[in-house]
Amino acid sequence: MTSALGNLSAQQRALVDRWLPNATVERDHSWGLTTTTVVEVTHAGKRFIVKAAGADDHHIQRELHAHLTWLRPWTSRGRAPTLVHGSADAKVLVTRYLPGELVLGSTHADDPAIFRQAGELLALLHAQSVVVDDDYERRENEKSLAWLRQPHRIAAATAERLRAEIETWATPPATLVPTHGDWQPRNWLVHHDVVGIIDFGRAAMRPASTDFARLAVQDFNRNPDLETAFLDGYGPDPRDAGAWHRDRVRAAIATAVWAHRVGDEPFEAQGHRMIAEALSSSRA
């Protein structure tokens, strides 16, 4: 393997060399903000994606679980990459390359037809399983309070207001479904006008409404026609007023603090906007 895979551990490199001997690196798709390496390679005339994480990363395990448990409604339609090899212990996986260009930053980013497809795909994911979790809300409240204890640039008065509000929230039973966890055009591809989905490192059982959080603050806010098209594809809107407010506040805090941790200032600024918008909405 070439230097594009130089960040892989010895264990990860050994596995990739065994799975894809003499593979040729074509392109490095890594963000550079985290310890995750994402590389496009060619082996035996076919293209693959190698994804490997650092020692403290938990996303590869989530991604492998998603591939093994939830992605068939998409992979059977050619709308998500198919898992070829994976090791939870080594935190590395290989998938078949899914062709397409990212919707984010392209002309497709304002196309209602693309958002309608994205809604249809999300509905397929959410429809697979439903569980009721009596402890979900309490756990999520604790996670948000933990985020606020980490270094961040949220104004002190705002952080205190957030803490005070979270501590007043009720913790009713929550209905959970398989969710992507980062559902937005950054993780959608378009190939010949067909939408495909990538990046399942945040996949988990959550309320369906949580997959609306990124879209609401970015795309739906920018163009309400995109929200209409998305719901045309998805079906009935799962956002209940009280739970949706809590979803928005939690997502806003996590975005602002995580982005500050990794040095992504534009995303951090988005997190601060999310906080302001969430706090200006009706309280749960």
Automatic annotation (TrEMBL):
Assigned keywords, A-Z: Kinase, Transferase
Source species taxonomy: Bacteria, Bacillati, Actinomycetota, Actinomycetes, Micromonosporales
Protein name listed in UniProt: Thiamine kinase-like enzyme
Listed Pfam families: APH
Domain of life the protein comes from: Bacteria
Domain Aminoglycoside phosphotransferase: 37-240
GO MF annotations in UniProt: kinase activity
Organism of origin: Micromonospora jinlongensis
Keyword Kinase belongs to the record: yes
